[in-house]
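Predict the 3D structure for this chain.
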Amino acid sequence: MTTVLSGATTTTYSTPCGSQTLITVESDKAPHDYRFPLALSTGSTAKVEADGSVLIRDAAGTATSAFVAPWAFDAEGEPVPTTFRIEDGTLVQRIDFNSSNAFPLTADPTSVQWVPWPVLAISGAELKVLAGLTAAVFVGGAWVGCTFSKLTGWIAKVVSQICTVIGVGGVASAIAIINGTFRGANLVATKCYGINLSNPSAPLRDMPGRDCGF
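Done. Predicted structure below.
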């Protein structure tokens, strides 16, 4: 479904496990705030975490879904500041662009999916790299929320997604399990896989390509 706004569009794709939304900002006249109703169940809460992600918990305090820290880039690949906030049960993504940015901009409030367990969508090429990491990568750096100082690029985003679901204390253990389970596995580089973050050694799930940006 595509919604056309003044100077921007939001496009939502249905997937077998939920949905994915892309925001395309065409000009500096477009809105800065984009709203996504969360339809929280009774007793559920949504909270912006220290790293900028949003974690949704049920009445018992159990995490049921999450949105990783938002991102936005202009037409030249330059990052554009963007943040989440919660207003009356609605997720609001603010994109702080101005006339100096190259348009169009692209932004994505990416959700971590529960089906019924949390799933990390990752391409075969990325999983090969992730499975090659060891706990040693976390030596000599520091955590700020779910962001680790020694990691950059897509691998930093993937590790942040894992951290958002299982917490800082469980990241190194999850990476070690992924390393021991999938290192050397016969993976198709252009295929989208799903890792069960509640049990990283479980068999991989086949995911729709759009969940991996294909």
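The CA atoms of residues 123 and 213 lie 9 Å apart.
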